[in-house]
Amino acid sequence: MTREDYDRYAAAFNARDYDAVYDFYAPGAHLTFFGVDLATREAFRDFYGFLHDHVEETLTIERFAASAELVALEGVIRIEARKDLTAEALAAQGLDQFFPIRKGEVQELRQYIHYHVTNGLFTGVSCALMD
């Protein structure tokens, strides 16, 4: 996985092209972060479709490292609410671990994102917040 490959992935994510994003994942891949486990294309589409209906989310990459088996990056996830995302709406999706956000509010979250790679495709991803 090269930086150019990852930039195509990030551009597809920022464009909300969920199928193009998920094409970077190998069959059986698991995306695990903050209590969410997305193990299918449908689960991926459902989660991000719900989230991005409420918020605009973009990734800015600050540090990037890659090999044939690993992509690791440090960056800022910027979340701006397009409409209120209430505790009730989150709970209805089983996302009690996420915080509500009101229309117009902005959150910037510094994250480590860690991808395992096999044959040029992601087989797993996990994230951690940092200060």
UniProtKB/TrEMBL annotation:
Q: Organism's domain of life? A: Bacteria
**What residue stretches are annotated with the SnoaL-like domain?**
7-123
Q: Name one Pfam family in it.
A: SnoaL_2
- Coiled-coil segments on the chain, per record: none
Name-wise, this protein is Nuclear transport factor 2 family protein
In its UniProt entry, the species of origin is given as: Novosphingobium decolorationis
